[in-house]
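> call design_seq(struct)
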């Protein structure tokens, strides 16, 4: 957690475009949902931390950065998931040590790349955010808080909490992006969220593990819904019938998981602030550097991809205008034709 250099910046309009165009291969909530979770968490701060509401708003867009770091940092991926079903069945998950090295040396025999390290990543970020607040390093506090937003949101996505994360073990390949990105981006409405008030977390690590287990508990329901929706769509998973049925069966689950992510994120920020001694919160930052808080990698390599996205959007807009123009010409031509026909029929 000492990579605090290598700053690279994007303006907010570009970030908004990235949030929409984020590769689904990244396998995370759609970028838009990460932003919505951060915004909801900022509104959810308790009254005694009201000044953080404005401060945390600029942290919403940067919450998508960790998915972009994955494209350049080979060590990034395990921070985005935790798969308890890879652990021994007789292991009480709540006995895991909050010290990652100790947990994987003495309690977990599997490789951390297989199990995932999201819970320990959140603890690292909370510790860093707390110290940054205590020492008035608010830029670093914002960077850690924004990254925390991403990993916490991922931990609330059920398919980030199972070894069968993409349906590969049950013949449901592709279910991850169908549920988390395609369906959620199309149907989820942030106004349906009602986050519970932020609370002080007596044992943050236990709380994080509990949230992961809540996600894990609903995995069977999501996989079953995918099977039912596929049958309803005649075996297809790429048409309207499939997604309408899938949302009918899982919409409540997805909405509650995103809602819980917003509530729990605000509790993490609130707890970090209390541990820091309730310091005075400054005016909001204008921008947050895009470099990884772990490795220092930036997201500049995406500039070419962003340019490609813009070009594709320009081509799409051109096609739309051409189609609209042709449609208008057809309507005008048809109207003129009917007028001529009418006049001819009126002649004696």
């Amino acid at each position: 957690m000492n990579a605090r250099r290598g700053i690279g910046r994007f303006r907010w309009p570009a970030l908004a475009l990235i949030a929409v165009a984020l590769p689904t291969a990244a396998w995370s909530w759609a970028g838009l949902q990460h932003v919505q979770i951060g915004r909801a968490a900022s509104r959810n701060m308790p009254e005694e931390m009201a000044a953080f509401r404005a401060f945390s708003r600029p942290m919403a867009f940067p919450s998508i950065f960790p998915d972009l770091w994955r494209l350049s940092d080979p060590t990034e991926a395990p921070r985005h998931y935790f798969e308890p079903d890879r652990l021994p069945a007789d292991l009480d998950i709540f006995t895991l040590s909050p010290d990652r090295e100790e947990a994987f040396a003495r309690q977990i025999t599997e490789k951390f790349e297989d199990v995932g390290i999201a819970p320990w990543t959140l603890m690292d970020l909370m510790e860093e955010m707390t110290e940054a607040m205590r020492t008035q390093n608010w830029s670093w506090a914002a960077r850690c808080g924004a990254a925390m937003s991403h990993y916490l949101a991922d931990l609330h996505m059920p398919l980030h909490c199972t070894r069968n994360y993409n349906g590969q073990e049950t013949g449901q390949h592709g279910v991850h992006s169908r549920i988390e990105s395609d369906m959620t981006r199309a149907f989820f409405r942030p106004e349906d969220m009602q986050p519970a008030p932020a609370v002080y977390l007596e044992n943050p690590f236990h709380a994080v593990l509990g949230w992961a287990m809540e996600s894990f508990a609903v995995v069977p329901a999501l996989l079953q819904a995918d099977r039912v929706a596929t049958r309803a769509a005649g075996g297809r998973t790429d048409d309207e019938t499939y997604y309408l049925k899938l949302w009918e069966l899982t919409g409540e689950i997805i909405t509650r998981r995103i809602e819980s992510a917003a509530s729990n994120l605000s509790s993490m920020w609130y707890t970090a602030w209390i541990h820091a001694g309730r310091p005075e919160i400054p005016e909001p930052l204008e921008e947050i550097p895009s470099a990884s808080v772990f490795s220092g990698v930036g997201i500049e390599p995406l500039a070419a991809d962003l340019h490609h996205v813009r070009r594709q959007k320009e081509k799409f807009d051109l096609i739309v205008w051409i189609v609209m123009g042709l449609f208008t010409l057809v309507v005008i031509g048809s109207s003129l034709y009917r007028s001529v026909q009418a006049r001819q029929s009126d002649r004696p």
